[in-house]
Design goal:
It contains six helices and two strands. With 117 residues, the protein is mainly α. It folds into two domains: 33 residues; 78 residues, Cytochrome Bc1 Complex, Chain D, domain 2 (Orthogonal Bundle), CATH 1.10.760. A two-stranded antiparallel ribbon has the order 1-2. Strand 1 and strand 2 form a beta hairpin.
Length: 117
Amino acid sequence: MPRFVVVVSALLTVAALCACGSHTATAGPGAAVTATPLESASVGRGRAVFAARCATCHGAAGEGAQIGPPLRGELRRRTPAFVTDAIANPSPPMPKLVPAQLSQQDLLDVTAFVEQL
């Protein structure tokens, strides 16, 4: 394979990893693990945050309620990035909860929970 193709391929791979928001986390002495932000999210923590902050409008199981639309099946309709952005930058009547009431980790956790509904 020509050197030019190898270099371009390597640069495109690095660019793709950077664009995905990957970061390196330490998994032990000297071990590095690459993880995306959603891989560090917890569905369990997201369930708790959802119950406290979202269930009133979206229903306890994301089935929808009088104010908020159903969120079940979002994985089939939306990407995790779209869901995260919709929570962080909501359209009315949804309240803006980030960063005043939800941390960045809460945001990722709720996204992980919604994605598994």
